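Inputs:
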Amino acid sequence: MKGEAFKGWSYKLREEQMSVPTKIYTTHSSERAQTEPAFVRWLLIAVALIFLTLFLALPLAAVFSQAFEKGLLVYLEALREPDTLSSIKLTLITAAVSVPLNLFFGVTAAWSIAKFSFPGKNLLITLIDLPFSVSPVISGLIYVLIFGLQGWIGPWLNEHDIKIVFAVPGIILATIFVTFPFVARELIPLMEAQGKEEEEAALVLGATGLQTFFRVTLPNIKWGIIYGVILCNARAMGEFGAVSVVSGHIRGMTNTVPLHVEILYNEYNYTAAFAVASLLAFLALITLAVKSVAEWKVRQQLNNN
Amino acid sequence: MRLFKQQNNVLPGFGPTLGFTIFYLSLIVLIPLSALVFRTAGLTWTEFISTVTAPRVLASYRVTFGAAIIAASINAIFGVLVAWVLVRYHFPGRKIVDALVDLPFALPTAVAGITLATIYSSNGWVGRYLEPLGIKVAFTPIGITLAMVFIGLPFVVRTVQPVVEEIEVELEEAAVCLGANRWQTLQRVIFPMLFPSILTGFALAFARGVGEYGSIIFIAGNMPMVSEITPLLIITKLEQFDYPGATAIACVMLLVSFLMLLIINLLQKWSRRYAE
């Protein structure tokens, strides 16, 4: 498996190994030595579930419970507020620009890295992964250092009346940075695992490069792309730290949905804050559902090959 | 690109795709990150040292790194447990639980932050039961640790889970044939195989915790010297237009991130030694 940088994610790509389906009910003596006694199993399951309930399920339930605390009318009222609507609009714009750009980058990067061999490949993979290791606050800061008034080209931009930081372009740039690796890191190991025989066959049969890509490669990596895009989109719509640094927090102008949640919360307007937050939580649930399906499809496709 | 053309590869598009990859990577990631390093290089060495070792900054390192180590340790223990239970045991709702593990990846950090702060405040769902016991979670370093546990959990589970899946049943059978009881098998056969991935997961969770901002600031209380994390301090300096200060601290954090990235890559090489 190439690419150490791929962390836990590459597990999806390993061939499905036989995982021993240790049925919890069986107590045949031959299996005893290979699993734990029944009461230990139930105890471990219970501890794991309690831990997950406390840390994952409870917060999720709390978002919706807090949002609907004062009833559906108040909930809808909070969502209809003009500042909320403009923050939703800005978040949609941000995602609509950053996700396609990173998708295009992810596909081109995966094509060059997975289908060809060249020196420095592993370094390139590590560099692509870099934005994930950088604190979101720093991801925002670097753009302030370049485009801010005290920054490299800030004074020049100011003379020409171009605003990047504390305006929408800065928000989009910071979002592109934090979502940079999502599609690429999903596609590179997938395309490496699939090899290039199918593409070679298509070329030999007379297909052009683009035909080969759209008719052969694309169907093969479809679910990998969906997986990368859905995670990229979730982060793009939910990013807080990086965007917070570059936004300038101008209500109705440079507020994304997560920033708007913060403002409402700090104004002690908890119901409205959670109402807006529930939109993001709902997005997270959809993301998890699509991600699970995509993961399953990718596994299935690799096993068929 | 002639240099690389020796390979026997009939696929088209290597030049343009690699060219665009490097161009876009430089534009979005490398040049902006180098801005941080260059701005820091503008400081004198004594300025830099006095900025990054000021008492308030040192206190923020203690809070951030201390909480991140504790949180990563908690995650290492429970993450392995969750991974083990998800792979080895069958129980109703296992698939849903499995999907839910990724919630911290998908839930925006600000949402996680206000929710955790609400649950663990003194009249929240959990906080109200902890208050009589004298445990205050919200607005203390415990709250910071808690938020880091939340965001770090999937890293350990998703790193250990595939390794548990790949354990060959023959190894356990061999251990049994050689007379080991279940505990000995776990301790002497399975744990050594999982250990590198546990360490990797720990490192990933730690690295994420150190840089985390959104989910922490709502629950942290943000008191200087007590519960102020380093990323927040960077933002505070920035808001006071202390650009050199913010840049210097950010540079230290970036250095730590690179160091962690290096350690994680080495750990992953180590954990692959059984894979091949």
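Confidence is low (pLDDT under 50) at residues 1-30 of chain A. Flag for discussion at group meeting.
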